[in-house]
Write a structure and sequence with these properties.
Layout (H helix, E strand, L loop, with lengths): L10 H26 L4 E2 L3 E6 L3 H4 L6 E11 L3 E8 H12 L12 H26 L3 E3 L3 E6 H12 L5 E10 L4 E10 L1 H10 L3
Antiparallel strand pairs: 1-7, 2-7, 3-4, 3-5, 3-6, 4-8, 7-8
Helix pairs in contact: 1-4, 3-4
Length: about 210
Amino acid sequence: MSRIDLNKIDYMQYDVLREIGNIGAGNATTALSQMINTKIDMKVPNVELLEFKNLPDIVGGAEKIVVGILFTLQGSIDGMMMFMMDKPASRHLVNQLLGDNLKSEADKFNEMELSALNEIGNIIAGAYLSSLSGLTNLVITSSVPYMAIDMAGAILSVPAIEFSKIGDKALLIETEFGDDLKAVNGYFILIPTLESYGAILSSLGL
């Protein structure tokens, strides 16, 4: 399996990675809409290849409290995927799912709400990976999700440490999706190994 140098990626390869991000985020938004039984509109995502050290700034700084749901990827693609939201966005989605819109952003999540949040992440990531698998005809499986509520810098240090040995960039898909009550930001962070980037692009004829 060929490795790819992310510092020398050409325009066409980058454009394909961006399109993968767009389609994956769209599928994930549709799945979320069905899950909470509410129409959700999504803005066209912003897709970038970023160095790990710059990721915390995108979500509001290293000290911002976020919810991160992390999966390891296996099969034809190895690596990690993370879905992140800030706490107000997470609270809004949980309230929508459980039908409890009286709870404020400041309220702590109880056990049922944490379970719901985990399931939201599971559904979103599953839809994203299913889309990626369908586009590339690659077999992609994911681990059981690991969820953490912590500062963005702490959560993002996990994949950064794991993959700093093989590269320093991640594919960030930043999107805004909203219902009649509120628009929230969500962040997909896809971190395949360099060989897996090569497999994705090769499967699409590049």
